[in-house]
Amino acid sequence: MEPTTIAIDLAKRVFQIHFVDPATGAIHSKVLKRAQLVPFFANRPASRVVMEACSSAHHWARVLARLGHDVRLIAAQFVRPFVKSNKNDAADAAAIWEAAQRPGMRFVAVKTEDQQAMLALHRIRQQLVRIRVMQINQLRGLLYEFGVVLPQGRRPSIEAAKGALASLADQLPAMLTDSMQDQLSRLRALDEQIARIEQRILEWRRNDDACKRISEIPGVGVLTATAAVSVIGQAKTFRSGREFAAYLGLVPRQNGSGGKVKLGGISKRGDVYLRTLLIHGARSVISASKHLPERMRAMLTRRPTNVVAVALANKMARTIWALLAYGRTYEAAPSR
Hints:
Blueprint: E1 5-9, E2 14-20, E3 27-33, H1 34-42, E4 48-52, H2 57-66, E5 70-74, H3 76-79, H4 89-101, H5 113-144, H6 154-167, H7 174-207, H8 209-214, H9 222-232, H10 241-247, E6 252-257, E7 260-266, H11 272-288, H12 294-300, H13 305-326
Parallel strand pairs: 1-4, 4-5
Antiparallel strand pairs: 1-2, 2-3, 6-7
Helix pairs in contact: 5-6, 5-7, 5-9, 6-7, 7-9, 9-11, 10-13, 11-13
């Protein structure tokens, strides 16, 4: 007998449950408080529980899986078409249940605590890097008002700013120089915080076999390897490397009708952060050109560099999936 499918619309304090009794066909829709959710599922036989892949979904998926339930996560864009009439908690839960019944529905892999912790480190680092860039740009603009042009690059501009503040100490008001010195201190603190996070990411990479294997791919560094393993979760969730590349938005957008298909630019769907890392890694391979395949060298002669970088990032994504899905190690293609 097929297990009962139970849909949950997640929230912070109130959870909406929707399921159909397979014996009677009766539709059940009820509201549970946060403290009632775990006891409700602990007292039920093993069921198929479906949720939207939103905030806290992976946490609840791990909790319910430990209770013996088969937990499935559905991307929000696949649930939205099934919402009937007005949007509310009951309609959302019913839409999640309807989406789970569709044949061929694709589900999101449930992440482990380690994978989610690594993604959290990447998000913290990404925000700190963004703040650091903002601070440097502001310092650059403020000093430009006093005739100081800082060079390009983070480290050269910070060193030049220190020298400029020392030389302009007698010309600028003390309140401004003190404030800019405080900003330089904040930049030093940001550098230290980012370095500590990167050290933690490096240590995790050293202890993770999957990360070490995909790090052998040219263009895949510490950040890309750890982010890829954390984002993918379970590689077998994707049917092929092409599907994983499509999930990352590294394939052309299609627009077709009547059997005629037009291909546009890349779709830019999926995880923006991982796609950015892969494209930057591809650019580094192209600039070095030592590990660049012969086909990519030929492509550079007839296509723009950015197009080749995206094509190489697509190949890197498919290679990452193959290594993770089949437990293989990277073997470089023989040079021609």
